[in-house]
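Archive maintenance. Older records in this collection stored only the sequence; we are now back-filling the structure field for every entry so that each record is complete. The fields below show one back-filled record exactly as it appears after the update. Entries are processed alphabetically, and Lipopolysaccharide biosynthesis protein is next in the queue.

ARCHIVE ENTRY
Title: Lipopolysaccharide biosynthesis protein
Organism field: Pseudanabaena yagii GIHE-NHR1
Length field: 438
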Amino acid sequence: MGGSILAVQQIIKVIKEKLADRFLRNLGWLGLSQLFIRVSRLAATIVLARLLTKEDYGLAALVLTTNEFVNVFTQNGIWAKIVQADEADLPELCETSYWLNWIVCGLVFLSQCIAAFPVSWFYNDPRIILPICVMATVYLMIPMALVQASLANRENRLHVSALANGIQVSVDNILTIILAFLGWGMWAIVLPKVLVAPIWVIVYYRNHPWRPTYKFTLSKWQEIIRFGRSVLGVKVMHTLINNLDYVIAGRFLGVEALGLYYFAFNAGLGISMSAINTLETALFPHLCDARSQPSEFKSRYFKSFKSIAWIILPLVFLQSSLAPFYVPLIFGQKWIAAIPLLILICLSAIPRPFANAASSGLWAIDKPDWDFMWNILFTGFFAIALLIGVNWGVLGVAIAVFLTHSIASPAYTVWVSSYISRVMDRETTIAIETKETT
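Back-filled structure field:
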């Protein structure tokens, strides 16, 4: 009897080790993908900094910011529900999700084309109407492979995500370099993002066997919407947080000032955000995998902070400390004024992945509505800080970004971590007591 128990314990130990290794393997795949992306993006950033004007950067920022605000409605939580759903409900949810994606993406395409006109009026620049409409065509491709992408994430096959993102973004950057040399101005940044969209579709479609039956159904749509509405709300708030500084700088300081700020943001936070997004992509399915094991869930959640710290802290401190040397050397003397902005924005990255990990923890235990409420509060705080900071120009905007993230994000992370710890401890105790009773 004792030997059997020991054997079972050994099997459980091996399974746990494999699950833990899977998270690291996923980070490895995504990290390798990001390495290729960062090399190509660095080359693109250098070329753009040398060949494009601040006005070109500003116009591209307006187009991409508009696209980000509309694009958020494609991140409506449908994919997250597929990742989080019970196995028995999965076939029905996938069929419904496929048709919901077509409905949502079709409406988003029309909305962005219509929005191009009031946006051009708001910024008093009709040059941005056509590129905004052209970028909207991407939405007509997304539904072809969104279910496959969600299922690949659910199955922790993040090497597929790494392949899709790595190829897509690297080709995007290469095309950007070519078009910049050809003198296409802001189109060098905008057009490649449309041209590479089919790559994402093809990679996921070829690497996952799921196919729709093409029989229209909206069964279980209420369940998807119930979960997805809070996820969508969180994504909307995140989009506001990530783009509100562009909107305010562009509206109150002008296109050239926005161009300077946009360069600083991308040159400073681009590398860090890639690492942050990689961690977030790998962590959510990793946590969902342990939903039925409270002690394992808690262990994975808190271990993720150690992984985040090891990756983010050295990266941010190295990049921010070297900024005064590499900016004029690599990007040119005309961007020296962006160095203080770059350093502040770069340092603001430190608390972000920890707050994102807290959000993933709440999503995994079916509490995205709590994360949504927090993001509403944070967005209001952030908007007020930016409106105050803009009175001191783009430097004031950068200071506002740094301070809000440095104050609010750690507070949120501590609160969520405390809650998850209590809940998982309680569920572990209940599970032990139930086992002893039976």
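Update note: The longest helix spans residues 2-51. Residues 1-20 have pLDDT under 50 and may be disordered.
Entry marked complete.
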